[in-house]
Every structure is written in C-alpha cells, then in structure tokens.
Amino acid sequence: MNKLNWGMIGGGQGSQIGPAHRLGSGLDGAFSFVAGALDHNADAGRAYAQSLGIAPDRAYGDWREMLAGESARPDRVDLVTVATPNATHFEITKAFLEAGFHVLCEKPMTMTVDEGEQIVRTAAASGKICAVNYGYTGYSLVRHMRAMVARGDLGKVRLVVAEFAHGHHANAADADNPRVRWRYDPAQAGVSAQFADCGIHALHMASFVTGQEVEKLSADFASCIESRVLEDDAMVNFRMDGGAVGRLWTSSVAIGRQHGLTIQVFGETGGLRWAQEQPNQLYWTPVGGRVQIIERGEANLSPEADRASRVTVGHAEGMPLAFANIYSDLAEMISAAKQRRPADPAAALCPTALDGLRSMAAVHGAVRSASNNGEWVDARPPMLRD
Ligand code: NAI
What we know:
Number of strands: 14
Distance between the termini: 42 Å
Bound molecules: 1,4-dihydronicotinamide adenine dinucleotide
Helix content: 25-40%
Shape: globular
Number of helices: 12
C-alpha cells in the first residue's frame, strides 16, 4: 500500500491531544505526517511543524493557509485531523470537507445540533469521510465487548452503566485559573461543560458496545463548585432503541478518580465490565458463574479484537494504540476509495459524523432536561427522528 498523506490542525506544542494523534497516525506506517497548521500562534505553529519534520512550505500559519496550500497540490493530504478547541471544529471541518478532503474531527464535533446536521449533509454531498475521534472505541477489548454483545453472549441487553468521572477540576482554589475557568464559561465552552467534554465519550461508548442508539434521556446537572455557571457533575438516565436501560455519571470533581471512563453491560445471560485505566483486561461474568478475566491479545478472541491488537498478550497497550486503530480504519477506507475497491467491512467501526451529531443532540437534550427538573426529552437529532 502506498503511504497516505496526513495533516493536522491544532495539536501544537504542549497541547493535550496532539501527541496521541501523531503517535496513533504514525504507528502502522500507513500515513506520512506532511502538513500542519498546529498552533493558534502562526509563528509557533510553523516552527513546531518544522521541528517535527514538516517541509517549510507545508508548515502553515493557519488553517485557511493550509486549505489553500493543500488544495493546490497534486500530493495534497489524504486526511486532515482537526484537533483545535471545540468552537472551531465546525468551521474547519466543513471547509475541508467542501474542498474534498477526508476529515477526522475531535469531539465534540460541533457546538450546536444544527451545525452537526450541516456536517452530516456536507460529508454526504462531498462523498468524503468525516470521522469523529471517539478514540476509546479503538481499544481491542472495547471492540471485543461489542462483538460479544453482537453475537449474543449476553442475551438481550438489559442495562448499560457508563461513567466518565475524574477529579481534576475539584480544587475550588483553581476555579479562577484561566486554564480551567474557560471550560465552565458558556461564552467559550457552549451550553455544557462536563457532559459535553467527557460524558459524550461514555454515552457514545454505550451505543458502540450495545449497538443501540439513545432515544430519550433525563438529566440532573450540578455545579459542585458553586461559582461555575456550567455543570461539573451530571447524572443522565437514558433509554435506547433496542430496549436497554442506560445510566451515566460524569464528573470533574470526583477527587481520587483519574481518567475514570468505565463501561458495564448487563444482559440476560451475563455481564461485562471494562475500565479505560486497565484497558488490557475485560471482566466477564456468565449468569450463575464466576468472574472471568479476558486478557487482550489472548487466543480465541473475536476477529474485531484481534484486528485491533498489536503486541503479544501481557504487554500493556494504551491510549495512543487505541487512536492508532481509528487511524488504521481510516487508512483502509481512504485506500479503498482511492483504489475504487470495497473497504474491509471491519473498518466501518470507526465513529462517524452521525455519531458526532447524535452526541450534540444528547448534549442539548440533557441541558433542556436538566433545566426542567429532569424532564424526559427526545435525545435524537431532528434529522434522525421517525
Ligand atoms: P489544548 O488547548 O491542549 O491544545 C489546543 C491546540 O490547538 C494548541 O496547540 C493551540 O495552539 C491550537 N489551536 C488553537 N486554535 C487553533 C487554530 N484556530 N488553528 C490551529 N491551531 C489552533 O487542547 P486539547 O486538550 O488538546 O483539546 C483539543 C481538542 O481535542 C478539543 O476539542 C478536545 O475536546 C479534544 N480532546 C479529545 C480527547 C479524546 O479523547 N478524543 C481528549 C482530549 C481532548
């Protein structure tokens, strides 16, 4: 396979998520990192891109310059990752899709449901891939959970319990720290803080693992640090279109919790539990039986798990390798499109703009519900209602 060309917007020096994208995109040798507009400061972005080996004429000062520069090249980037702050995702993603680029957008994909629907329509009209980085779905054992549910190991799914609770914004003395404060300021963060930032990962994972979509929800939001306008803690109850009952807790004031993403699925004939901080073990309990620990990389797992697993059993794989699985799905889909052949259906596990849109509808639904004493609301985007 010829190498694909990859570029990134955002993810500059010192950013949180930029390194994981570079590691993930580079892992399998499918992509060459050839272009970037990496920083909100043009000079810093150009200098950092060149320090990472990007040629000076492709180390851009901003995304518009990159759009113009790459559009004019015969060897233009095959995939653009958008890893800038949330409020910029819509404008950048839409512009690159319209110009005929495949895009991987960070979550949340947009700030509003209407913008989310526009991205879905733009991607469909362009025929280009718009993926959304729910990167934790790339873990081998998350894909194995999904496969176990799909092949019926649990029987009908009764209940899914998802958590994404950390304690990194729990210090009240930090409330005025500029690096924390913007996250709870509606002018910069939008309608929701913790649910839109972390809760949507857990909610998307509930859908990914069960194969069901969220239909309606009821939310309770709290600002445990009272000066915050937006929520730092949320409990969301939901119902899924296949009949599963859903419970979700997300928090940024849960002192002692680190990353805190866990998912549990309970069916008629067994239960599963996976935690992102111990991603190489999956706990499986058949009804009436003992707890069994499934190890990533062991024999006789599902093809989905094997495809997403790289090093031998016993050697821990972590988050950048989960991102690498999103990139390997994208590499397969983009290569198939270039070669005018059908893509390996396994690559279709990669989250798409539809997932990004569903998350936005859930965020806005949860905000509506929370401001109406937990009233149950339709969580589906208008374009996906019956
Ligand atoms: P950050 O603040 O650490 O870094 C943002 C980077 O983007 C900086 O290098 C900044 O200079 C650059 N930037 C800002 N505006 C820009 C513009 N207009 N053009 C080019 N570069 C620009 O932010 P962080 O935490 O890395 O988050 C970025 C995005 O990634 C957010 O949307 C966030 O929600 C998402 N994220 C996703 C995670 C996941 O697990 N999928 C985890 C963490 C963040």
